[in-house]
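Box S1 | Example of a co-folding query
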Amino acid sequence: MTTTSAAPRVVTDAEPIRLWENGFATDPHRYYAALRAQGPVGWGELAPGVPAYVVTERIAALDLMRDTDTFSHDPRPWESTVSEECPLLGMMRWRPNSLFSDGTDHLRYRTTLLDAFDLVEPHDLRERVHRAVHVLVGRFGPRGEADLVADFARPLVSMLFNSLFGLPDSQSGRLTQALVKVIEGGDQAAEGEAEFGGYILELIATKTEERGDDLTSRLLDHPAGLSAEEVTWQVFLTVAAGHEPSANLVSNALSRILGNPEYYTTLTSGARPVMDAVVEVLHHETPLANFGIHFARRQTEFHGTEIRPAVPIVISYGALGTFAERAATGPLHPKDASHLSWSAGPHACPVRREALLIATEAIERLTQWLPDLEPVLARDRLAWRPGPFHRSLMALPVRFTPRTPDLPAEDRT
Ligand code: HEM
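Box S1 (continued) | Returned holo structure for protoporphyrin IX containing FE
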């Protein structure tokens, strides 16, 4: 925690910067500049009438993530201040899982996830990605046109999660639809949360009956002895936390590759690695743009700002990434030039290695199958989905020479 001798700023008097409105989706950096103008901690709104502190400065973000004595991940004090209809509850409601816990509870949950994912070998994950890309190209390849968000990035991640958690591909459409509703935090959020909950409950019931070589079975059998309910919430979290950002990492990187002649002309010759585009995304339009939600355990002063308890404090990974990159050309040390898109401290993304592998392999494989992908729209004409948390394209339409890979009959639908 950082304190100063001057009286702390009271940002709550300022007009909140509305991260839920359409303008934020169109031009987030204008909103980030407005937040930054308020100091390291700005005052925003995550939904109409639901305010939050927003951290846009790197040192402040790191202090927040590491000061577990002052800040907690438990949203329950905040929950009691909002109505049951609050569209953010799908994303922010307390559940007994890693994301919403602190201390020993957190360590117990996080260890089960790390141990389960540790058994996913990179070569196995790579093969799963290749298979999913093959199936998807088999579906849309013959058309010669596709939307790489709806036809590729989202179903790809649903297929991967289904297979990793032990469900068949036939369930992947259901998963995608439910999650889109939850993360948008709009009118359909409660419906999406219920659909997603139903999906997870069925998964747990299936695996309780018959174990397999999958993440769900590993969580059920982990020596930490999680109850079936606790396993349900770890799976709920992992799918919810991983699906949308991973799909967005793929589609945002693809949009940079297709919109940039330098990548586009060199992609197939391998001169510019796909990883470059992925790293650009982590700086410029990181998939989880604002998250890392903390709550002060008591009224406190933080980087010169008065912080009230029971009000969310959000880390703007989106604002931090671009700023860090600009700073890299200035007087800052290069270590300060890195983005924080995987977060840091005890809750940092435990699956970043896997997420990077999925994104790069998926894009490389897709462009091997369809080497002449051509964007239908210029990049500055692409539309972004509104919502305070994500940076997510509505669609990424492309054209290409039709291609029909051979597929087994069961994969053709
Ligand atoms: C295979 C895909 C992924 C899975 C399964 C996954 C899973 C998780 C889980 C379980 C947590 C909670 C950890 C804890 O509370 O201790 C987490 C945190 C986090 N993940 Fe991932 N993730 C994935 C991909 C991504 C991607 C693509 C991004 C963005 C680039 C991302 C960014 C983050 C961030 C920033 C956090 C910190 C949480 C916070 O902000 O509060 N993750 N992830």
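Residues 228-259 form the longest helix (32 residues). The pocket of protoporphyrin IX containing FE is lined by residues 98-99, 110, 113, 237-238, 241-242, 245-246, 249, 282, 286-288, 291-293, 317, 341-343, 347-351, 354-355 (CB under 6 Å).
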